[in-house]
Design a protein that fits this description.
Order of helices and strands: HHHHHHHHHH
Distance between the termini: 66 Å
Helix content: 55-70%
CATH architecture of the domain at 89-204: Orthogonal Bundle
Largest sheet: none
Strand content: under 5%
CATH topology of the domain at 89-204: Tetracycline Repressor, domain 2
Oligomer: single chain
Number of strands: 0
Shape: elongated
Number of helices: 10
Radius of gyration: 20 Å
Length: 204
């Protein structure tokens, strides 16, 4: 009866396991992040998920569609994690320090600038806009926390949006590598340097 009620063409699912679409997204994120857009095929994703390639195509007609949704879902999770960190009673400086550490750990082995630049060449303007909107969502979470800190007098009055842009710009420095592609500092050291530089810029 369950199979009869399943929409035509929809892959069967085991209710005890993760939904197939979730499985595809989670594995696609890992593949894209570690191998880049160009080197990952729909077949690679299917094999990683232990499903047929037709199943992947059922949910995502093109690799660009899969990549876009995978990155959006990743950024949604990051936004939720940032919001979770900011929801405690610690100071803004302590929370931003924790956010920097989480970011550096997640991107330690990834050249994010090159990664996104290579992928965007294959995306439509609409897909690029969707990614930009998801990225803006992450910015908004930080911006609201900075605005609240300004209102409480924790940091000097200023433009919260500008402060946020500066914070994310400095954050990218943490992904810089030397000639041997090794990190310039440990994650802890880099996080401390980034927060101190940002905090000094606020003239607190």
């Amino acid at each position: 009866m369950e199979q009869m009620n399943r929409p035509l063409g929809r892959p069967p699912q085991d209710t005890k396991k993760k939904p197939t679409k979730t499985l595809i997204i989670e594995n696609a994120v890992q593949l894209f992040i570690h191998h880049g857009y160009q080197l990952v095929s729909m077949d690679d994703v299917a094999k990683r998920c232990n499903v047929t390639k037709a199943t992947v195509y059922y949910y995502y007609p093109t690799k660009a569609d899969l990549f876009t949704d995978a990155m959006i879902q990743m950024m949604v999770r990051i936004s939720n994690r940032i919001a979770e960190i900011l929801s405690n009673d610690k100071s803004l400086k302590e929370n931003l320090f924790e956010i920097v550490k989480v970011h550096l750990k997640a991107t330690f082995d990834i050249d994010m600038k090159t990664f996104m630049k290579e992928a965007k060449v294959a995306l439509s303007n609409e897909q690029i806009q969707q990614l930009n909107d998801a990225e803006e969502m992450m910015y908004n979470v930080i911006e609201q926390a900075i605005f609240n800190a300004i209102e409480k007098g924790e940091i000097p009055k200023g433009n919260a949006k500008f402060y946020t842009q500066v914070f994310f710009a400095i954050l990218t420095v943490g992904n810089n590598r030397d000639a041997d592609q090794k990190s310039l500092f440990s994650i802890e050291e880099m996080a401390e340097q980034i927060i101190q530089f940002f905090w000094n810029g606020l003239d607190v």
